[in-house]
Amino acid sequence: MKYNLLKQNIQKNVTLSDAELENICTYFQPLQIQKKEFLLTQGSVCKFEGFVIDGCFRIFTIDKKGNENTLYFASNDWWLMDIDSFMNQKSSDLNIQALEDSTLLLISREDKLALYETVPVVEKLFRIMSQKAIVAWQRRLISNHCQTAKERYFHFTTTYPNIVSKLTDKQVASYLGITHEFLSKIKKNS
């Protein structure tokens, strides 16, 4: 039952038999994580790729001044990891923290490589997913350069209402790249 959402996510990108889907699921290990617990911290090596079954996570970095800069949030049916650390097995620049009690499915780097060998279409699956992620990052970069903070706020709140409801204003401001005070002004004048 816990693998149904993963199977649905996979089937959005590639067509697989039931046997192939079942085989893929055997490579993923379930993990329960508590609110405020860290799945990854800056300086450690990311040894997993995660799929969120239930819950919400904040993926962020802390700069030299101690400011938190949120890259993205991951909720149900989203993938999360530090791709640079995961692929290159180097120290992570990111923190991944649960914003609520959450359930994930994790696959290790070794198991992912083994899965590529046993079910070759999985490589196509992760290529498609990577391309979609790059498109999303590109759109976010364009938005950050071409939209006002107010436009970015309204786009975020209308695109991801189920995530916004789980966040503090400070977390939203960090994601938008603005101060908490400026976000308050945007909300007050809306």
UniProtKB/TrEMBL annotation:
Residues 32-117 form the Cyclic nucleotide-binding domain. Pfam families: cNMP_binding. InterPro entries: cNMP-bd_dom (IPR000595), cNMP-bd_dom_sf (IPR018490), RmlC-like_jellyroll (IPR014710). This is Cyclic nucleotide-binding domain-containing protein. It comes from Flavobacterium faecale.
